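Weekly structure sync, notes
Attendees: PL (lead), two postdocs, one rotation student
Agenda item 3: pending single-chain targets
PL asked that the sequence for the first pending target be pasted directly into the notes so everyone works from the same version. It is reproduced below exactly as submitted, 456 residues in total.
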Amino acid sequence: MTVDATHGTGDTDPPPPVPLGMPAFDAHRPPDPALVADCVHCGFCLPACPTYALWGEEMDSPRGRIHLMSQGLSGEPLSDSMVTHFDRCLGCMACVPACPSGVRYDRLIEATRGQVERNHRRPARERALRGAIFALFPYPRRLRLLRGPLAAYQRSGLQRLVRRTGLLDRLPPVLATMEEIAPPVRRAPVLPERVAARGPRRAVVGMLTGCVQGAFFPEVNAATARVLALEGCDVLIPRRQGCCGALSVHNGREAEARAFARRLIDVFAAAGVERVVVNAAGCGSSMKEYADLLADEPAYADRAAGFAASVRDVTEVLTELGPVAPRHPLPVTVAYHDACHLANAQGVRTQPRDLLRGIPGLELREIAEAELCCGSAGIYNLLNPGPAAELGDRKAGHVLATGARLLVTANPGCLMQVASSLRRRGGGTIALAHTVQVLDASLRGLPAAGLTGTGR
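Predicted structure, written out during the meeting:
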């Protein structure tokens, strides 16, 4: 046993990595053979899988990857080819609701990625890239430090010059992608630690501010707090909160994810809230799985289960409470994009649509191939910029085909990815916004023109 000096809890060390030429998986949480056996290779997952849609390769489909997991469990070594197919998975989980056998591919790929991170040595350049990403993105303070330089780059005219001259094409793909998806830096509203309910108090909720959401979409957090308050919630926003661990757990960095999860549980426990509200799909899906993540830790297992049960997407909370604040008309056509970790991982599909349809004058339009990921998928668009751009352009084409004036979704990664793709396709007439921003505009009686296009 090792002792975590920061949190004071025991945590069992995972087994050491397996030597070269040995079976693929060690004894610490390998893919569950029973879950692997649930797959009957029927192929219903194929139309929902983005990488299969791109390439039509069996090993780049969910059932193909499950076959590779089965080989690993049977003693096959963790080859470079096997890892490549696992890495190509976006983790969008569209195959989970599509599967008639109820195969838990989400749990299988998460367990497999943990094995890959422990037992496979990546090339030096890839290790450096991943190291840089995880030294930055899970740390809100470090991300906020980028706001000043990014704002100067955008406002000085240098960004327009770089894009007009074609310099981006000469940059390494990951740098070009980061430049393309970077959202406009706007004024960051400072939220108090407590936002009081307007009218009779109906609930006391804590609010996650997030990493990318807090640094680059602070206006979404401000809108979330206002909407919750107008609907009768006291909103507590703990200052000491940090990363939820979503990026880490989705990329096999289990120990790191556990540390982030323990800290977040401690912070919100001290706040004394009934529910923890999340406005970023990837964060919410991970936080709802804390019970599994921390199941091996005696000091946190029960607390993690209770915490996970309290986590709600903001649209879930608003639907559970029911509307009390009057909605003002908002005459705008909206295309709603399902964020993968909201629709597929959390099963939240009807709530955001019902909330949008409850706004007078708003017309909701559906997007073709709604189940296909936009290509963001956490850090997938940084690690695999080519396939991600293909998926983003495909999504942008379907969005433009709706003829809507506003694209609405529930995840910062989606907002950045689709905005970049729309810009490449010349979709300058459509704005982008988070679901709560549309609700906020309606509750405050703001004009549709006030939705200026988050992520553009």
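Discussion points:
- Residues 1-12 have pLDDT under 50 and may be disordered.
- The chain has 25 helices and eleven strands.
Action: rotation student to compare against the earlier draft before next sync.
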